[in-house]
């Protein structure tokens, strides 16, 4: 991907006039990229499978490559829709402007709507098939982890909550990491695709509120706003991974005692269960408290984020420097770039969950490699509301 966008893509002949619609996906540059990607994957997979063979190589390498390609394709769908916005909304403005009233036919509107449906249909087909494949991909990942841990079960069984870690945490780890990985790939590819678009559209924006005229105003505003949000939420949510880990630990202790009570009448007596559930209750209340102020920051930021691009365009609106179509194209491109930079903002809760699962599986890895257990395994649960 880096080689294509940095060098090889520049060697491909341009497609000519901008193609708006589904035909974009089989235009010359797109077909050249498809061929380049297939050859690159074949060379990489052949080399890796020859010199470092592994039973899961096909799913690991070729499966990951397919998910990477579909992520790229879905970004191209977003680009195609953003290009469709400009002529379609300009058509609306032309139809609603008194001076040009009656100059737009219904057939032109229907043609624009059908163009959108063509792009959307391609997206739906690819998205559904990708989701089906990804489900199998994640389960194979879980299977590989499950087989590895089960083969070493005699050494792992003494770790607190070992059964849950093998049965549940492996699936959660694979699912969460796949979702985060695909989201990260989409964010990077979206930036690559839309930053040039936003740079070009910045020529229509003469100045920004408060700061006035600056170079590349839309790009600078998107980056600054996104970095601010990411830093804010990372700061106020820094304690959540550890609390989530302790939550899993107290839940496992409570569940284990209940399971032992099914086998022996001497276990799971009411005082013991009351004590263990009190630990569960205390940790959940501490988690709720931390999520409360985290959500205050998140919701304030995300609600402000909705109106932020309109705030930036106020001087441009007042100057009458853009049409409705250009405005929609700017809003679309700005949103894509902003959301890409806000990867941590939108994914932070999921990242917290992943870190807690990773900490639990890390104890397995430490045991298998003869390393001391992570310090968090022996830390007491935080004291909080009762």
What distinguishing features does this structure have?
77% helix, globular, mainly alpha
Termini separation comes to: 53 Å
Roughly what is the average pLDDT, rounded to an integer?
A: 82
Radius of gyration: 26 Å
Order of helices and strands: HHHHHHHHHHHH
Assign a percent range to the helix content: over 70%
Q: Which structural class should the secondary elements be placed in?
A: mainly alpha
Number of helices: 12
Query: How would you describe the shape?
Result: globular
Main sheet attributes: strand count, strand direction, barrel closure:
none
Strand content: under 5%
Compute the number of strand runs: 0
Describe the structure.
- The chain is mainly alpha-helical.
- The chain is built from twelve helices and no strands.
- It has helices spanning 2-6, 28-51, 57-96, 106-151, 153-156, 162-201, 217-236, 240-263, 270-312, 314-319, 324-341, 343-368.
- α3 runs antiparallel to α4, α3 (57-96) runs antiparallel to α11 and α8 (240-263) crosses α12 (343-368).
- The longest helix has 46 residues, at 106-151.
- The mean pLDDT is 82.
Summarize the structure in short:
77% of the residues lie in helices and 0% in strands. It has 386 residues and is mainly alpha-helical.
Furnish the topology, listing elements before pairings:
Elements: H1 2-6, H2 28-51, H3 57-96, H4 106-151, H5 153-156, H6 162-201, H7 217-236, H8 240-263, H9 270-312, H10 314-319, H11 324-341, H12 343-368
Helix pairs in contact: 2-3, 3-4, 3-6, 3-11, 4-6, 6-11, 6-12, 7-9, 7-11, 7-12, 8-9, 8-12
